[in-house]
Amino acid sequence: MISESGSDAKLVDLGAGVPIRVPGESSGPEASKYDPHWWHDPRNAEAAMTEIERQLSAAEPKTAASFAATRRRI
Question: Rounded CA gap, 68 and 71, in Å?
Fold first, then answer.
């Protein structure tokens, strides 16, 4: 889907950048207890917002203060 969009926008994998993980096993007998929906935990959502701010600020340094202010309001 991304390659077919025609965009050259940078892809940011928030799941890879968010340091907090949902506890549980991703394979083996305990796999059914693993929840891949990491954004359901408010701590994970906050970490994702921080990563989004970081990525946007790197892409648009002149607007970094605005991105930071917006994240603090949310």
Answer: 5
